[in-house]
């Protein structure tokens, strides 16, 4: 299974790059990789998308799916590149808890 192509991400699997040239360019800009041209196996994992980037209702059938489906207009927007490694390498939920705890700690210090 291919791993996520976002720098410092260790997840496996994910979403293929879009075929639309404009959207693909936006994805490449979002993941911030220098001189990177994604091959057919390049993936971006679910950790880099927000819940609003997914839908559960089929576009043509109108039936709700059990799995989340990435919307055609979704662009990866969640990155922990500027965070310490202990936050970057944990799950999204735990990372959010770390960030909130840090903010609360520093507010109390001031």
Sheet with the most strands?
Answer: 2 strands, antiparallel
pLDDT < 50 stretches: none
Main sheet: strand order = 1-2
Number of strands: 4
From the helix content, strand content and strand pairing, which structural class follows? Answer: alpha+beta
Q: Kindly estimate the percentage of residues that lie in beta strands according to DSSP.
A: 5-15%
Query: Mind telling me the C-alpha Rg?
Result: 16 Å
The H-and-E topology, N to C, reads as EHEEEHH
Oligomer: single chain
In which range does the helix fraction lie?
25-40%
Shape: globular
Query: What does the average pLDDT come to?
Result: 77
Helical segment tally? 3
Distance between the termini: 47 Å
Q: In brief, what are we looking at here?
A:
The chain is of the alpha+beta class and 110 residues long. It is built from 3 helices and 4 strands, in the order βαβββαα. It has helices spanning 21-31, 85-88, 92-109, and strands at 15-16, 43-44, 54-57, 64-70.
Provide key terms for this protein.
single chain, 110 residues, alpha+beta, two-stranded antiparallel sheet
Question: Can you give a write-up of this model?
Answer:
30% of the residues lie in helices and 14% in strands. By secondary structure, the chain is an alpha+beta fold. It has a domain at 80-110. The longest helix is centred in the last third of the chain and has 18 residues, at 92-109.
